[in-house]
Protein backbone atom coordinates (compact mmCIF):
# COMPACT_ATOMS: atom_id res chain seq x y z
CA UNK A 1 0.00 0.00 0.00
CA UNK A 2 1.36 3.40 -1.00
CA UNK A 3 2.21 5.77 1.80
CA UNK A 4 0.33 9.09 1.98
CA UNK A 5 2.00 11.55 -0.35
CA UNK A 6 4.02 8.74 -2.01
CA UNK A 7 2.48 9.35 -5.44
CA UNK A 8 5.02 8.61 -8.16
CA UNK A 9 6.49 11.44 -10.18
CA UNK A 10 6.50 11.16 -13.95
CA UNK A 11 8.21 13.12 -16.68
CA UNK A 12 6.15 13.98 -19.77
CA UNK A 13 7.99 14.76 -22.99
CA UNK A 14 5.64 17.05 -24.92
CA UNK A 15 5.43 17.76 -28.66
CA UNK A 16 6.36 21.30 -29.68
CA UNK A 17 3.21 22.19 -31.61
CA UNK A 18 -0.25 23.47 -30.61
CA UNK A 19 1.36 24.66 -27.38
CA UNK A 20 -1.79 26.18 -25.88
CA UNK A 21 -3.74 22.95 -26.37
CA UNK A 22 -1.35 20.71 -24.44
CA UNK A 23 -2.26 21.50 -20.84
CA UNK A 24 -6.07 21.26 -21.31
CA UNK A 25 -5.62 17.93 -23.13
CA UNK A 26 -3.48 16.41 -20.35
CA UNK A 27 -5.84 17.74 -17.64
CA UNK A 28 -8.91 16.35 -19.45
CA UNK A 29 -7.35 12.91 -19.95
CA UNK A 30 -6.14 12.63 -16.36
CA UNK A 31 -9.65 13.53 -15.21
CA UNK A 32 -11.10 10.92 -17.59
CA UNK A 33 -8.93 8.14 -16.12
CA UNK A 34 -9.45 8.98 -12.46
CA UNK A 35 -6.34 11.05 -11.89
CA UNK A 36 -5.96 14.69 -11.05
CA UNK A 37 -3.56 17.22 -12.48
CA UNK A 38 -0.99 17.96 -9.78
CA UNK A 39 2.45 19.35 -10.41
CA UNK A 40 5.23 21.15 -8.57
CA UNK A 41 5.67 23.42 -11.58
CA UNK A 42 3.41 26.45 -11.59
CA UNK A 43 3.63 27.03 -15.32
CA UNK A 44 5.07 25.15 -18.25
CA UNK A 45 5.21 27.84 -20.88
CA UNK A 46 6.76 26.37 -23.99
CA UNK A 47 8.97 23.75 -22.30
CA UNK A 48 8.69 20.17 -23.61
CA UNK A 49 9.51 18.73 -20.15
CA UNK A 50 6.72 18.49 -17.59
CA UNK A 51 6.97 16.83 -14.17
CA UNK A 52 3.63 15.43 -12.97
CA UNK A 53 2.43 13.49 -9.95
CA UNK A 54 0.23 10.60 -11.11
CA UNK A 55 -1.43 8.06 -8.75
CA UNK A 56 -0.47 4.93 -10.69
CA UNK A 57 1.41 3.60 -13.70
CA UNK A 58 -1.90 2.32 -15.13
CA UNK A 59 -3.25 5.89 -15.29
CA UNK A 60 0.02 7.01 -16.93
CA UNK A 61 -0.32 4.29 -19.57
CA UNK A 62 -3.99 5.13 -20.22
CA UNK A 63 -3.04 8.77 -20.64
CA UNK A 64 -0.52 7.84 -23.34
CA UNK A 65 -3.06 5.67 -25.18
CA UNK A 66 -4.98 8.87 -25.89
CA UNK A 67 -2.73 11.92 -26.02
CA UNK A 68 -1.51 13.40 -29.31
CA UNK A 69 0.21 16.34 -27.55
CA UNK A 70 2.72 14.20 -25.61
CA UNK A 71 5.48 12.08 -27.14
CA UNK A 72 6.49 9.88 -24.18
CA UNK A 73 6.17 9.42 -20.44
CA UNK A 74 8.86 8.26 -18.00
CA UNK A 75 8.85 7.25 -14.35
CA UNK A 76 11.15 9.96 -12.98
CA UNK A 77 14.04 8.57 -10.95
CA UNK A 78 16.21 11.66 -10.79
CA UNK A 79 16.38 15.32 -11.80
CA UNK A 80 18.93 18.11 -11.46
CA UNK A 81 20.29 21.27 -13.02
CA UNK A 82 23.77 19.73 -13.33
CA UNK A 83 25.17 16.18 -13.60
CA UNK A 84 26.16 16.32 -9.92
CA UNK A 85 22.62 17.28 -8.87
CA UNK A 86 21.20 14.50 -11.04
CA UNK A 87 23.51 11.86 -9.51
CA UNK A 88 22.68 13.04 -5.99
CA UNK A 89 18.96 12.85 -6.81
CA UNK A 90 19.37 9.31 -8.21
CA UNK A 91 21.24 8.17 -5.09
CA UNK A 92 18.31 9.36 -2.99
CA UNK A 93 15.73 7.47 -5.08
CA UNK A 94 14.41 4.43 -3.12
CA UNK A 95 16.38 1.30 -4.11
CA UNK A 96 13.29 -0.91 -3.62
CA UNK A 97 11.63 0.98 -6.49
CA UNK A 98 14.63 0.37 -8.75
CA UNK A 99 15.28 -3.32 -8.01
CA UNK A 100 12.34 -4.85 -9.98
CA UNK A 101 13.83 -3.38 -13.18
CA UNK A 102 17.52 -3.97 -12.54
CA UNK A 103 17.76 -7.62 -11.39
CA UNK A 104 20.14 -10.11 -13.04
CA UNK A 105 17.45 -11.81 -15.18
CA UNK A 106 16.44 -8.56 -16.87
CA UNK A 107 17.66 -6.84 -20.04
CA UNK A 108 17.86 -3.09 -20.54
CA UNK A 109 19.25 -0.23 -22.57
CA UNK A 110 19.86 3.47 -21.87
CA UNK A 111 18.93 6.15 -24.42
CA UNK A 112 19.93 9.80 -24.60
CA UNK A 113 17.41 12.49 -25.61
CA UNK A 114 18.52 16.10 -25.98
CA UNK A 115 16.31 19.08 -26.71
CA UNK A 116 17.83 21.93 -28.77
CA UNK A 117 21.29 20.34 -29.05
CA UNK A 118 22.94 17.38 -30.78
CA UNK A 119 25.54 15.30 -28.94
CA UNK A 120 28.34 13.24 -30.46
CA UNK A 121 28.36 9.48 -29.90
CA UNK A 122 31.39 9.92 -27.65
CA UNK A 123 29.48 12.42 -25.46
CA UNK A 124 26.52 10.05 -25.22
CA UNK A 125 28.71 7.12 -24.13
CA UNK A 126 30.38 9.34 -21.52
CA UNK A 127 26.98 10.21 -20.00
CA UNK A 128 25.89 6.57 -19.89
CA UNK A 129 29.18 5.43 -18.31
CA UNK A 130 28.75 8.04 -15.56
CA UNK A 131 25.68 6.12 -14.33
CA UNK A 132 27.71 3.02 -13.33
CA UNK A 133 26.90 3.70 -9.65
CA UNK A 134 23.29 2.57 -10.30
CA UNK A 135 22.68 -1.07 -9.26
CA UNK A 136 22.20 -2.49 -12.79
CA UNK A 137 22.66 -6.29 -12.65
CA UNK A 138 20.93 -7.28 -15.90
CA UNK A 139 22.36 -7.51 -19.43
CA UNK A 140 22.41 -4.77 -22.02
CA UNK A 141 20.18 -5.54 -25.02
CA UNK A 142 19.98 -2.78 -27.62
CA UNK A 143 17.40 -4.46 -29.90
CA UNK A 144 14.69 -5.86 -27.64
CA UNK A 145 15.30 -4.83 -24.03
CA UNK A 146 12.73 -5.49 -21.32
CA UNK A 147 13.33 -2.05 -19.82
CA UNK A 148 14.38 1.22 -21.43
CA UNK A 149 15.90 4.07 -19.45
CA UNK A 150 16.51 7.59 -20.72
CA UNK A 151 18.72 10.54 -19.91
CA UNK A 152 16.92 13.68 -21.09
CA UNK A 153 18.73 17.00 -21.34
CA UNK A 154 17.06 20.39 -21.80
CA UNK A 155 19.12 23.09 -23.53
CA UNK A 156 16.37 25.72 -23.60
CA UNK A 157 14.15 27.03 -26.37
CA UNK A 158 16.45 29.39 -28.29
CA UNK A 159 18.16 27.64 -31.24
CA UNK A 160 20.31 30.76 -31.76
CA UNK A 161 21.68 30.68 -28.22
CA UNK A 162 22.44 27.09 -27.20
CA UNK A 163 24.17 26.91 -23.78
CA UNK A 164 27.27 24.81 -23.16
CA UNK A 165 25.55 22.96 -20.31
CA UNK A 166 21.88 21.92 -20.05
CA UNK A 167 19.36 23.87 -17.94
CA UNK A 168 17.88 20.60 -16.61
CA UNK A 169 18.80 16.91 -16.76
CA UNK A 170 16.33 14.07 -16.12
CA UNK A 171 16.69 10.31 -15.75
CA UNK A 172 13.74 7.93 -15.85
CA UNK A 173 12.28 4.60 -16.86
CA UNK A 174 10.33 4.73 -20.12
CA UNK A 175 6.67 3.80 -19.63
CA UNK A 176 4.89 4.45 -22.96
CA UNK A 177 4.70 6.63 -26.05
CA UNK A 178 1.77 8.86 -27.04
CA UNK A 179 -0.39 8.64 -30.14
CA UNK A 180 1.53 11.01 -32.41
CA UNK A 181 1.35 8.51 -35.29
CA UNK A 182 -2.42 9.12 -35.53
CA UNK A 183 -1.71 12.52 -37.06
CA UNK A 184 -0.09 10.84 -40.05
CA UNK A 185 -2.28 7.73 -40.34
CA UNK A 186 -5.49 9.83 -40.27
CA UNK A 187 -4.07 12.65 -42.42
CA UNK A 188 -6.66 14.52 -44.49
CA UNK A 189 -4.34 14.11 -47.52
CA UNK A 190 -5.07 10.36 -47.51
CA UNK A 191 -8.78 10.63 -46.68
CA UNK A 192 -11.40 9.37 -49.10
CA UNK A 193 -13.90 12.22 -48.74
CA UNK A 194 -12.82 15.79 -47.93
CA UNK A 195 -14.23 19.30 -48.14
CA UNK A 196 -12.90 22.85 -48.18
CA UNK A 197 -12.78 23.01 -44.38
CA UNK A 198 -11.99 19.41 -43.35
CA UNK A 199 -10.36 19.55 -39.90
CA UNK A 200 -6.67 18.74 -39.50
CA UNK A 201 -6.32 15.23 -38.00
CA UNK A 202 -4.19 16.31 -35.03
CA UNK A 203 -6.69 19.00 -33.99
CA UNK A 204 -9.58 16.55 -34.40
CA UNK A 205 -8.01 14.19 -31.87
CA UNK A 206 -7.20 17.09 -29.53
CA UNK A 207 -10.87 18.13 -29.66
CA UNK A 208 -12.02 14.58 -28.85
CA UNK A 209 -9.60 14.50 -25.90
CA UNK A 210 -10.75 17.90 -24.64
CA UNK A 211 -14.29 16.50 -24.84
CA UNK A 212 -13.26 13.44 -22.74
CA UNK A 213 -14.74 11.16 -25.40
CA UNK A 214 -14.64 7.52 -24.31
CA UNK A 215 -15.83 4.08 -25.40
CA UNK A 216 -19.62 3.74 -25.95
CA UNK A 217 -20.24 7.51 -25.71
CA UNK A 218 -22.61 9.16 -28.17
CA UNK A 219 -20.96 12.15 -29.83
CA UNK A 220 -22.82 14.68 -31.97
CA UNK A 221 -21.62 17.28 -34.50
CA UNK A 222 -24.34 19.76 -35.61
CA UNK A 223 -22.11 21.19 -38.39
CA UNK A 224 -20.75 17.85 -39.53
CA UNK A 225 -19.38 18.77 -42.98
CA UNK A 226 -17.32 15.81 -44.24
CA UNK A 227 -17.24 14.17 -40.80
CA UNK A 228 -13.61 14.70 -39.76
CA UNK A 229 -14.53 15.24 -36.11
CA UNK A 230 -16.71 12.11 -36.09
CA UNK A 231 -13.72 10.04 -37.20
CA UNK A 232 -11.58 11.09 -34.22
CA UNK A 233 -14.36 10.30 -31.72
CA UNK A 234 -15.11 6.95 -33.40
CA UNK A 235 -11.42 6.02 -33.16
CA UNK A 236 -11.79 6.24 -29.36
CA UNK A 237 -14.83 3.93 -29.45
CA UNK A 238 -17.68 6.47 -29.42
CA UNK A 239 -20.83 6.19 -31.54
CA UNK A 240 -21.08 9.23 -33.79
CA UNK A 241 -23.91 11.22 -35.30
CA UNK A 242 -24.21 14.55 -37.12
CA UNK A 243 -26.28 17.04 -39.09
CA UNK A 244 -25.52 19.68 -41.70
CA UNK A 245 -27.62 22.15 -43.67
CA UNK A 246 -25.75 21.40 -46.91
CA UNK A 247 -27.54 18.60 -48.78
CA UNK A 248 -24.68 18.09 -51.26
CA UNK A 249 -22.05 17.67 -48.52
CA UNK A 250 -24.14 15.23 -46.48
CA UNK A 251 -24.85 13.11 -49.55
CA UNK A 252 -21.39 13.50 -51.13
CA UNK A 253 -22.71 15.22 -54.26
CA UNK A 254 -21.51 18.13 -56.37
CA UNK A 255 -18.06 19.53 -57.08
CA UNK A 256 -15.02 17.87 -55.52
CA UNK A 257 -12.61 19.72 -53.23
CA UNK A 258 -9.58 17.81 -54.49
CA UNK A 259 -7.23 19.27 -57.06
CA UNK A 260 -7.62 17.79 -60.57
CA UNK A 261 -11.00 16.22 -59.67
CA UNK A 262 -14.13 17.94 -61.00
CA UNK A 263 -17.00 16.00 -59.37
CA UNK A 264 -17.33 13.81 -56.30
CA UNK A 265 -17.58 10.08 -56.94
CA UNK A 266 -20.62 7.97 -55.97
CA UNK A 267 -18.81 6.48 -52.97
CA UNK A 268 -17.51 9.77 -51.52
CA UNK A 269 -19.44 10.27 -48.29
CA UNK A 270 -19.03 10.34 -44.52
CA UNK A 271 -19.83 6.64 -44.09
CA UNK A 272 -17.05 5.79 -46.57
CA UNK A 273 -14.60 7.86 -44.49
CA UNK A 274 -15.34 5.83 -41.37
CA UNK A 275 -15.21 2.61 -43.39
CA UNK A 276 -11.73 3.62 -44.61
CA UNK A 277 -10.44 3.46 -41.02
CA UNK A 278 -12.44 0.39 -39.97
CA UNK A 279 -14.81 2.50 -37.87
CA UNK A 280 -18.10 2.04 -39.73
CA UNK A 281 -19.69 0.15 -36.82
CA UNK A 282 -19.58 3.39 -34.78
CA UNK A 283 -21.43 5.40 -37.44
CA UNK A 284 -25.04 6.09 -36.46
CA UNK A 285 -26.06 8.46 -39.26
CA UNK A 286 -26.00 12.04 -40.55
CA UNK A 287 -29.05 14.10 -41.48
CA UNK A 288 -29.69 17.20 -43.55
CA UNK A 289 -30.86 19.56 -40.83
CA UNK A 290 -30.66 23.19 -39.73
CA UNK A 291 -28.68 23.75 -36.51
CA UNK A 292 -30.81 26.82 -35.72
CA UNK A 293 -33.93 24.64 -35.59
CA UNK A 294 -32.90 21.33 -33.99
CA UNK A 295 -35.41 18.57 -34.67
CA UNK A 296 -35.03 16.87 -31.29
CA UNK A 297 -37.52 16.06 -28.59
CA UNK A 298 -36.53 17.46 -25.23
CA UNK A 299 -34.07 15.21 -23.44
CA UNK A 300 -30.39 14.42 -22.88
CA UNK A 301 -28.93 12.33 -25.67
CA UNK A 302 -25.23 13.14 -26.02
CA UNK A 303 -22.08 12.61 -23.98
CA UNK A 304 -20.24 15.22 -26.05
CA UNK A 305 -21.03 17.83 -28.70
CA UNK A 306 -17.89 18.48 -30.74
CA UNK A 307 -18.10 20.83 -33.71
CA UNK A 308 -16.50 23.43 -35.97
CA UNK A 309 -19.21 25.93 -36.98
CA UNK A 310 -18.83 27.86 -40.27
CA UNK A 311 -17.27 31.31 -39.95
CA UNK A 312 -18.46 32.70 -43.30
CA UNK A 313 -14.97 32.55 -44.86
CA UNK A 314 -14.73 29.32 -46.89
CA UNK A 315 -18.19 28.09 -45.87
CA UNK A 316 -21.18 30.42 -45.57
CA UNK A 317 -23.23 30.81 -42.38
CA UNK A 318 -26.78 29.89 -43.34
CA UNK A 319 -30.07 28.87 -41.83
CA UNK A 320 -33.47 27.97 -43.20
CA UNK A 321 -36.20 30.58 -43.22
CA UNK A 322 -39.90 31.10 -43.94
CA UNK A 323 -41.89 33.36 -46.24
CA UNK A 324 -42.37 35.91 -43.42
CA UNK A 325 -38.62 36.21 -42.85
CA UNK A 326 -37.71 37.08 -46.45
CA UNK A 327 -36.55 40.72 -46.61
CA UNK A 328 -38.78 43.18 -48.46
CA UNK A 329 -37.96 43.74 -52.10
CA UNK A 330 -37.05 40.08 -52.70
CA UNK A 331 -39.48 38.07 -54.78
CA UNK A 332 -41.30 35.47 -52.70
CA UNK A 333 -40.70 31.81 -53.38
CA UNK A 334 -43.45 29.29 -54.10
CA UNK A 335 -45.35 28.18 -50.99
CA UNK A 336 -43.78 24.72 -51.18
CA UNK A 337 -40.22 26.04 -51.07
CA UNK A 338 -38.25 26.99 -47.95
CA UNK A 339 -35.30 29.26 -48.83
CA UNK A 340 -31.87 28.31 -47.45
CA UNK A 341 -30.26 31.69 -47.90
CA UNK A 342 -31.12 33.73 -44.83
CA UNK A 343 -28.14 35.15 -42.93
CA UNK A 344 -27.24 33.54 -39.64
CA UNK A 345 -25.25 35.90 -37.42
CA UNK A 346 -22.29 34.35 -35.64
CA UNK A 347 -23.55 35.51 -32.23
CA UNK A 348 -26.92 33.85 -32.86
CA UNK A 349 -25.22 30.68 -34.09
CA UNK A 350 -23.07 30.32 -30.99
CA UNK A 351 -25.85 31.04 -28.53
CA UNK A 352 -28.08 28.52 -30.35
CA UNK A 353 -25.20 26.04 -30.07
CA UNK A 354 -24.78 26.66 -26.31
CA UNK A 355 -28.52 26.31 -25.72
CA UNK A 356 -28.61 23.10 -27.73
CA UNK A 357 -25.65 21.63 -25.80
CA UNK A 358 -27.15 22.69 -22.44
CA UNK A 359 -30.41 20.97 -23.35
CA UNK A 360 -29.11 17.73 -24.92
CA UNK A 361 -25.85 16.94 -23.09
CA UNK A 362 -25.83 14.57 -20.14
CA UNK A 363 -24.70 16.13 -16.86
CA UNK A 364 -20.90 16.25 -16.99
CA UNK A 365 -20.95 16.06 -20.80
CA UNK A 366 -18.75 18.45 -22.75
CA UNK A 367 -19.20 20.95 -25.57
CA UNK A 368 -16.06 21.60 -27.66
CA UNK A 369 -16.21 24.16 -30.47
CA UNK A 370 -14.19 26.76 -32.39
CA UNK A 371 -14.91 30.46 -31.89
CA UNK A 372 -13.51 32.82 -34.59
CA UNK A 373 -12.30 36.19 -33.30
CA UNK A 374 -10.91 39.44 -34.69
CA UNK A 375 -7.75 39.65 -32.58
CA UNK A 376 -7.47 43.45 -32.07
CA UNK A 377 -10.95 43.51 -30.49
CA UNK A 378 -10.87 40.21 -28.58
CA UNK A 379 -11.32 40.04 -24.80
CA UNK A 380 -12.19 37.02 -22.65
CA UNK A 381 -15.59 38.59 -21.92
CA UNK A 382 -16.56 37.86 -25.53
CA UNK A 383 -16.66 34.09 -25.02
CA UNK A 384 -20.38 33.12 -25.05
CA UNK A 385 -21.77 32.15 -21.65
CA UNK A 386 -24.57 29.85 -20.45
CA UNK A 387 -25.81 29.14 -16.88
CA UNK A 388 -25.75 25.37 -17.46
CA UNK A 389 -22.20 25.29 -18.88
CA UNK A 390 -18.88 25.88 -17.14
CA UNK A 391 -15.85 27.08 -19.13
CA UNK A 392 -13.06 24.50 -18.89
CA UNK A 393 -10.47 25.83 -21.34
CA UNK A 394 -9.94 28.49 -24.00
CA UNK A 395 -7.01 27.97 -26.42
CA UNK A 396 -5.93 30.17 -29.32
CA UNK A 397 -4.88 29.14 -32.82
CA UNK A 398 -3.64 32.00 -35.00
CA UNK A 399 -5.25 32.27 -38.45
CA UNK A 400 -3.56 35.49 -39.59
CA UNK A 401 -1.94 38.60 -38.12
CA UNK A 402 -5.36 39.97 -37.17
CA UNK A 403 -7.62 36.92 -36.78
CA UNK A 404 -7.58 33.71 -34.79
CA UNK A 405 -9.94 31.02 -33.62
CA UNK A 406 -10.28 29.82 -30.07
CA UNK A 407 -11.00 26.23 -29.06
CA UNK A 408 -13.62 26.54 -26.33
CA UNK A 409 -14.34 23.58 -24.02
CA UNK A 410 -17.35 23.73 -21.67
CA UNK A 411 -18.86 21.18 -19.30
CA UNK A 412 -22.53 20.82 -18.37
CA UNK A 413 -22.82 21.42 -14.62
CA UNK A 414 -26.56 22.08 -14.22
CA UNK A 415 -29.75 20.59 -15.66
CA UNK A 416 -31.42 22.75 -18.32
CA UNK A 417 -34.59 24.67 -17.45
CA UNK A 418 -36.81 26.65 -19.85
CA UNK A 419 -35.80 29.94 -18.26
CA UNK A 420 -32.15 29.22 -19.16
CA UNK A 421 -32.92 29.51 -22.88
CA UNK A 422 -32.76 33.32 -23.00
CA UNK A 423 -30.45 33.97 -20.06
CA UNK A 424 -27.64 34.92 -22.44
CA UNK A 425 -29.55 38.11 -23.31
CA UNK A 426 -29.00 39.28 -19.73
CA UNK A 427 -25.32 38.36 -19.79
CA UNK A 428 -22.49 40.87 -20.09
CA UNK A 429 -20.99 38.49 -22.67
CA UNK A 430 -23.82 38.89 -25.19
CA UNK A 431 -23.21 42.39 -26.54
CA UNK A 432 -19.39 42.15 -26.84
CA UNK A 433 -19.53 39.09 -29.06
CA UNK A 434 -22.15 40.65 -31.34
CA UNK A 435 -19.29 42.78 -32.68
CA UNK A 436 -17.91 39.59 -34.25
CA UNK A 437 -20.94 39.24 -36.49
CA UNK A 438 -18.83 41.18 -39.00
CA UNK A 439 -15.91 38.71 -38.62
CA UNK A 440 -16.02 37.91 -42.35
CA UNK A 441 -15.76 41.57 -43.39
CA UNK A 442 -12.93 42.19 -40.92
CA UNK A 443 -11.12 39.05 -42.09
CA UNK A 444 -11.19 40.07 -45.75
CA UNK A 445 -10.47 43.70 -44.89
CA UNK A 446 -7.21 42.52 -43.33
CA UNK A 447 -6.42 40.31 -46.34
CA UNK A 448 -7.01 43.25 -48.72
CA UNK A 449 -4.77 45.53 -46.66
CA UNK A 450 -2.01 42.92 -46.57
CA UNK A 451 -2.12 42.39 -50.36
CA UNK A 452 -2.02 46.17 -50.95
CA UNK A 453 0.96 46.47 -48.58
CA UNK A 454 2.81 43.65 -50.36
CA UNK A 455 2.14 45.20 -53.77
CA UNK A 456 3.40 48.57 -52.55
CA UNK A 457 6.62 47.07 -51.15
CA UNK A 458 7.19 45.16 -54.41
CA UNK A 459 6.86 48.37 -56.43
CA UNK A 460 9.41 50.09 -54.22
TrEMBL record:
Predominant cellular place of this UniProt entry's protein: cytoplasm
Bilayer-spanning residue ranges: none
CDD domains the UniProt entry points to: AdoMet_MTases
Key word tRNA processing present: yes
Catalytic activity, EC: 2.1.1.214
GO BP term, example: tRNA processing
Enzyme's top EC category: transferase
Domain Ribosomal RNA large subunit methyltransferase K/L-like methyltransferase: 190-320
Pfam families: Tmrp11_N (PF25904), UPF0020 (PF01170)
GO-annotated molecular function: tRNA (guanine(10)-N2)-methyltransferase activity; tRNA binding
Function: Catalytic subunit of the TRMT11-TRM112 methyltransferase complex, that specifically mediates the S-adenosyl-L-methionine-dependent N(2)-methylation of guanosine nucleotide at position 10 (m2G10) in tRNAs. This is one of the major tRNA (guanine-N(2))-methyltransferases.
Protein name: tRNA (guanine(10)-N(2))-methyltransferase TRMT11
UniProt organism field: Balaenoptera musculus (Blue whale)
Lineage: Eukaryota, Metazoa, Chordata, Craniata, Vertebrata
Gene: TRMT11
